[in-house]
Design goal:
It is built from 15 helices and 4 strands. By secondary structure, it is mainly α.
């Protein structure tokens, strides 16, 4: 644990200290996001904050490599190099998109390449636990396919939820911290070994997010950009794949974690994943492209309900923390295996009912007269980027 705290501190310090430098460089060379009709922030704001995140990742992995506490993770394993190479690829794709627009097919191709690199270096989903069914040993081809899809889905989920100052950063911090605690329980129970790279990646991700958040919370002085969002998605995908997809042992007889450890990220990362599903369904119903931006995300709906940006972010942080607590409760108490999944479903359904367009009145709007509810113009300290 001492080594993990050191790496956490390194990731936090590098990100926190380097982000202002990146912001000044972004402003000097024009890497800023200007306000437009798709965005609500009112002043040009620096982007490419993902550069500081990526440097922190490289530095943290280098420090971990030199610590005796992580000897089992690095000795004779190709997984750390695979995660670093995949992170480099997906970060490069996102950074390029921040500086000059990249087409949607090219972006997806970059994500697929990053996922393929993970598979090539041994970070892949080998076992799939299907709830209420059984453990499935995946064939090599199916394992590679599901791993790549997992990376693409996780990266897009984090990217889509990056719509308010500090929202994605805070949600991923909660998710990474929660998943680290879950992983530690699995290590204590002997389900996974100290050589598993998942806990290391999750604690690095937590440190990166905590270091970036003071600069990114409302009013944000810098955005992480697609480079940062895709990088965080890749890191969360890597840690969850390493922990959930690499072991075939039940967790100390706890039924819920026996059937669904691989699906824990679906609950811990509940906000961005549900938001992603809503976005796909919404845009498909309108026959628009999945990558087409709009203002119908959960955080936009919260703001239309009258919540300011900070309150909307805090509400979604709290919802993510509640999901994480429900999932972690059985792991730490040995109770609630049957109750936790039901509570998660109820919480998710309640969020859908409350925020789905048309639920606030019979006419499908917010004021009952068939016209859109008025939205107050953003204040100077309500800067946001979709």
């Amino acid at each position: 644990m001492g080594a993990k705290l050191i790496v956490l501190g390194v990731a936090f310090t590098v990100t926190f200290g380097l982000t202002p430098v990146v912001r000044r460089l972004a402003e000097r060379y024009g890497a800023v996001v200007a306000p437009d009709e798709r965005r609500v922030h009112s002043v040009p704001t620096a982007t490419i904050g993902g550069v500081a995140m990526f440097v922190a990742l490289v530095t943290s992995l280098a420090v971990a490599w030199r610590l005796d506490g992580f000897a089992a993770v690095f000795d004779g394993s190709s997984e750390p190099l695979g995660v670093l190479l995949a992170a480099t690829i997906i970060f490069a794709v996102g950074l390029t998109d921040d500086l000059r627009e990249v087409s949607a097919p090219a972006r997806v191709a970059g994500m697929v390449l990053a996922g393929s690199v993970l598979v090539r270096f041994g970070v892949s989903i080998l076992f799939l636990r299907i709830p209420l069914y059984d453990l499935v040993l995946l064939s090599p081809d199916l394992s590679a396919l599901i791993t790549v899809l997992w990376v693409v889905g996780m990266a897009n989920a984090v990217n889509l939820v990056d719509g308010l100052d500090g929202l994605a950063t805070g949600i991923v911090a909660i998710a990474a911290g929660s998943f680290f605690l879950y992983s530690e329980q699995l290590i204590d129970a002997g389900v996974i070994s100290e050589s598993n790279i998942g806990p290391l990646i999750s604690v690095i991700t937590l440190g990166i997010c905590l270091g970036f958040l003071p600069h990114n919370f409302n009013p944000a002085r810098i955005f992480m950009g697609d480079g940062g969002a895709l990088l965080l998605g890749l890191l969360m995908a890597s840690s969850t794949i390493a922990v959930g997809g690499s072991q075939n042992e039940p967790f100390s007889g706890q039924v819920y974690f026996f059937f669904a450890p691989l699906f824990i990220p679906l609950f811990i990362l509940g906000v961005p994943i549900i938001d992603t599903l809503f976005a796909i369904i919404r845009r498909a119903s309108k026959r628009s492209g999945v990558a087409t931006a709009d203002k119908e995300h959960l955080h936009h709906r919260l703001m239309r309900l009258g919540h300011g940006q900070r309150r909307a972010v805090l509400i979604l942080w709290a919802w993510t923390a509640a999901l994480s607590g429900l999932v972690l409760y059985p792991a730490y108490t040995g109770k609630g295996d049957a109750v936790a999944p039901l509570a998660v479903v109820v919480l998710g359904f309640g969020l859908y009912v409350f925020f789905h367009p048309g639920t606030r009145s019979g006419n499908g709007d917010g004021n009952g007269n068939g016209t859109p509810e008025a939205v107050a113009p953003p204040s100077a300290d309500d800067a946001e980027v979709t």
